[in-house]
């Protein structure tokens, strides 16, 4: 675990030093929230969750890209994919939880007659999904611009497509609409169960994609054999 | 500059020119005696320490000849039949290399001859089309660029890489700072890597490759951006690591050090032969 924590600590330090980026990340969900607060309180909750997702996945994308320069060296220095991917995910999840907390408190004190526990669940799942989503994009797409454009498309689609459409379930944040409906409109528990299942599956699948992409890019090479010295 | 400071600088310059410790002590003692007897300032009598050391090194015939008798150890890096094509262009064709503990191999060749590709194949960062690489022990790698994190301080780099090597944070920091001092560099405590000059960042890169004393060191033109003094310090360190039993592969296009390495792999010739 020491190596995983070392990677997580380094990733947290890297992100903490990008102060302008952090400020934008912090304010982006607020802009989403305020955009619909005047006319539709419930919709503003859904939007703030999507804003969180966008901000965190963008942070993960840039964090993954920043790690590209040093990760080959770390791999040769004794780190495995478990340490490198796990450490970066740990850092991003920590930042995600820190970022989500003020927004949960905002909803808690600004909105009434909603299920707060379900909203906390949406935010937790959003954090869980966004970190591997951004890292997966950084692993698959070598340039940040391409990854950012894909993120833009995904979040845009997430806002526009009809959540009842089957294809909408392929989007990583579909669960926010389902659990959001349960939390805001007080629908039956089926919405919560479907959303929870979707969120957990999305997080697992995206984490698997990150792991596989890492192995393809930097995993063990069949031509290279290390013979330990005793 | 006082005579004492001048003599200290001369000692450092002679070391950089690979003059052995006995001969260095002798030259410095002789020079000090001359200065004492003549009463002349050192700069007027001998010029700058750098000029005088170069003249001494020339007159005694280069590096310490006792190095030639060094024993070499067991095989540490074994490369067999490495072939690599980029699209349809062959870059490496059946390249072999064996480096033993206590040896330095220089990889030379024209631009595009595949020097960096060869090192990346050895480090497992690039897959060859054919061939095998066997590394005995632990591997350190210094890329031509990159290899550092833009937003971390040097000490944080030492701690991060050191943790992978099993070093505690204080040990990694101590070791990193000691290697940095050998390159005449004191790492700043709170300067992010992106704010270091190109040459200083390469020093950080080199120190990170050496951290944890790996058995095999792969260095891809690590001296880019170094000033002359640091360049000489770098080669001095290479000889020191070699004497300590490390197997070293250095990619270089500077031929003036080739007479001091144990073997030369010329990828230009390999490509032409293919």
TrEMBL record, chain A:
<keyword id="KW-1133">Transmembrane helix</keyword>
<feature type="transmembrane region" description="Helical">
    <location>
        <begin position="44"/>
        <end position="64"/>
    </location>
</feature>
<feature type="transmembrane region" description="Helical">
    <location>
        <begin position="195"/>
        <end position="214"/>
    </location>
</feature>
<feature type="transmembrane region" description="Helical">
    <location>
        <begin position="20"/>
        <end position="38"/>
    </location>
</feature>
<feature type="transmembrane region" description="Helical">
    <location>
        <begin position="118"/>
        <end position="137"/>
    </location>
</feature>
<keyword id="KW-0812">Transmembrane</keyword>
<keyword id="KW-0472">Membrane</keyword>
<feature type="transmembrane region" description="Helical">
    <location>
        <begin position="85"/>
        <end position="106"/>
    </location>
</feature>
<protein>
    <submittedName>
        <fullName>Uncharacterized protein</fullName>
    </submittedName>
</protein>
UniProtKB/TrEMBL annotation, chain B:
<dbReference type="Pfam" id="PF00005">
    <property type="entry name" value="ABC_tran"/>
</dbReference>
<dbReference type="InterPro" id="IPR003439">
    <property type="entry name" value="ABC_transporter-like_ATP-bd"/>
</dbReference>
<dbReference type="GO" id="GO:0005524">
    <property type="term" value="F:ATP binding"/>
</dbReference>
<dbReference type="GO" id="GO:0016887">
    <property type="term" value="F:ATP hydrolysis activity"/>
</dbReference>
<dbReference type="InterPro" id="IPR003593">
    <property type="entry name" value="AAA+_ATPase"/>
</dbReference>
<dbReference type="InterPro" id="IPR027417">
    <property type="entry name" value="P-loop_NTPase"/>
</dbReference>
<keyword id="KW-0067">ATP-binding</keyword>
<feature type="domain" description="ABC transporter">
    <location>
        <begin position="77"/>
        <end position="274"/>
    </location>
</feature>
<protein>
    <recommendedName>
        <fullName>ABC transporter domain-containing protein</fullName>
    </recommendedName>
</protein>
<keyword id="KW-0547">Nucleotide-binding</keyword>
């Amino acid at each position: 675990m020491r190596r995983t924590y070392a990677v997580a600590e380094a990733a947290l330090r890297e992100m903490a030093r990008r102060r302008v980026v952090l400020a934008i990340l912090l304010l982006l969900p607020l802009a989403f929230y305020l955009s619909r607060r005047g006319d539709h309180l419930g919709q503003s909750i859904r939007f703030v969750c999507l804003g969180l997702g966008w901000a965190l996945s963008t942070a993960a994308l840039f964090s993954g890209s920043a790690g590209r320069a040093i990760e080959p060296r770390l791999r040769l220095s004794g780190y495995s994919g478990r340490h490198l991917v796990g450490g970066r995910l740990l850092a991003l999840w920590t930042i995600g939880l820190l970022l989500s907390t003020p927004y949960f408190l905002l909803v808690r004190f600004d909105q009434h007659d909603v299920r707060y526990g379900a909203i906390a669940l949406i935010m937790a799942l959003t954090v869980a999904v966004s970190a591997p989503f951004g890292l997966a994009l950084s692993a698959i797409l070598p340039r940040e611009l391409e990854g950012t454009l894909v993120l833009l498309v995904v979040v845009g689609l997430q806002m526009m497509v009809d959540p009842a459409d089957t294809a909408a379930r392929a989007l990583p944040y579909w669960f926010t609409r389902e659990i959001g409906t349960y939390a805001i409109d007080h629908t039956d528990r089926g919405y919560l169960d479907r959303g929870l299942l979707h969120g957990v599956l999305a997080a697992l699948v995206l984490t698997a994609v990150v792991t596989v992409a890492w192995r393809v890019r930097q995993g063990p090479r069949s031509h290279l054999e290390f013979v330990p010295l005793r | 500059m006082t005579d004492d400071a001048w003599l200290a600088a001369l000692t450092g310059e002679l070391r950089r020119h690979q003059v052995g410790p006995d001969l260095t002590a002798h030259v410095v003692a002789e020079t000090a005696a001359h200065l004492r007897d003549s009463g002349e300032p050192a700069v007027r009598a001998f010029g700058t320490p750098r000029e005088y050391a170069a003249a001494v090194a020339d007159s005694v015939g280069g590096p310490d000849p006792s190095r030639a008798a060094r024993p070499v150890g067991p095989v540490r890096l074994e490369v067999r039949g490495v072939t690599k094509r980029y699209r349809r262009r062959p870059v490496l064709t059946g390249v072999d290399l064996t480096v033993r503990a206590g040896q330095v191999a220089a990889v030379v060749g024209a631009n595009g001859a595949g020097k960096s590709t060869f090192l990346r194949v050895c480090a497992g960062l690039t897959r060859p089309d054919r061939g095998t690489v066997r590394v005995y022990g632990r591997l350190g790698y210094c890329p031509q660029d990159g290899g550092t994190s833009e937003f971390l301080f040097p000490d944080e780099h030492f701690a991060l890489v050191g943790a992978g090597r099993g070093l505690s944070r204080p040990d990694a920091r101590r070791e990193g700072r000691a290697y940095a001092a050998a390159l005449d560099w004191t790492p700043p405590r709170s300067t992010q890597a992106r704010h270091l000059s190109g040459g200083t960042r390469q020093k950080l890169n080199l120190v990170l490759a050496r951290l944890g004393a790996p058995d095999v060191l792969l260095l891809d033109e690590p001296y880019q951006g170094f000033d002359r003094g640091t360049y000489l310090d770098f080669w001095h360190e290479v000889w020191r690591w070699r004497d300590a039993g490390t197997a070293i592969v250095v990619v270089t296009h500077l031929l003036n050090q080739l007479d001091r390495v144990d073997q030369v792999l010329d990828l230009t010739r390999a490509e032409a032969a293919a």
